[in-house]
């Protein structure tokens, strides 16, 4: 089932996700940023550097949309990882300021776009060509999911149901296109959502809450998500 989402949805979810992410961040003491997050191998400093660099990269796409001048998200394929590693060494106060500043600049640049510019085609870091109207969704996905990844008491069940359905739709499409994992049929309890993932073998039925399925598909901790007979859901390859 495809979740319907609009540019307005993306902008609204970006605002809600930013409020959630930065609210959680403000409550975290600096020493917690040096510790682990829900993402293996990443400290809070890595995660914060990533969110800040992501906003800078999306500002590049907004510039591309506004001017027509091709401006990739990152200058080279390895630039994203290098920026995260370098950013993670910055002092906590500097990291916090960078994340806040870059988010504010992105909001301002998106607010400048007119209808023709929103329709201009830009290229994501994964090489997909999409209309600039996808930029708010790309940012919403970052701040919403990484608010959970800070591992500070916010779970997927704190995210809006409409966002979760759109996220599941987005991930199932990507996983089906890659075809490098198991075939699945997904049913959300307490919700009318049902999705399918193309892949290897006969489809495995997987059931869970909307929040649980979003966590499972994105490779996060997913309590209550099971296959038939209360068996564990199949392991999945990396999402992004």
From TrEMBL:
The keyword Isomerase applies. Transmembrane segments: none annotated. The keyword Isomerase applies. Residues 23-150 form the Mycothiol-dependent maleylpyruvate isomerase metal-binding domain. Pfam families: MDMPI_N. One of its GO terms (molecular function) is isomerase activity. InterPro entries: DinB/YfiT-like, Maleyloyr_isom, MDMPI_metal-binding, SCP2_sterol-bd_dom_sf. Keywords: Isomerase. It comes from the Bacteria. NCBIfam families: maleylpyruvate isomerase family mycothiol-dependent enzyme (TIGR03083). This is Maleylpyruvate isomerase.
């Amino acid at each position: 089932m495809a979740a319907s989402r609009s540019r307005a949805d993306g902008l609204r979810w970006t605002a809600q996700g930013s409020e959630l992410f930065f609210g959680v961040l403000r409550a975290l003491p600096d020493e917690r940023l040096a510790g682990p997050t829900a993402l293996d191998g990443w400290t809070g400093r890595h995660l914060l550097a990533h969110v800040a660099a992501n906003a800078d990269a999306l500002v590049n796409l907004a510039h591309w949309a506004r001017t027509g001048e091709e401006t990739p998200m990152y200058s080279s394929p390895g630039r994203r990882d290098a920026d995260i590693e370098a950013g993670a060494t910055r002092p906590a106060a500097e990291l916090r300021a960078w994340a806040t500043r870059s988010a504010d600049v992105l909001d301002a640049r998106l607010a400048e776009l007119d209808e023709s510019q929103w329709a201009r085609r830009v290229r994501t870091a994964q090489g997909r060509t999409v209309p600039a109207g996808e930029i708010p969704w790309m940012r919403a996905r970052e701040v919403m999911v990484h608010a959970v990844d800070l591992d500070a008491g916010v779970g997927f069940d704190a995210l809006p149901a409409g966002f979760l359905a759109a996220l599941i739709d987005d991930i199932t499409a990507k996983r089906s296109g890659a075809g490098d994992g198991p075939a699945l049929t997904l049913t959300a309890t307490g919700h009318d959502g049902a999705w399918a993932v193309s892949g290897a073998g006969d489809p495995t039925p997987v059931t869970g809450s909307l929040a649980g399925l979003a966590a499972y598909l994105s490779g996060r901790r997913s309590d209550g998500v099971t296959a038939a007979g209360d068996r564990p859901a199949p392991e999945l390859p990396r999402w992004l």
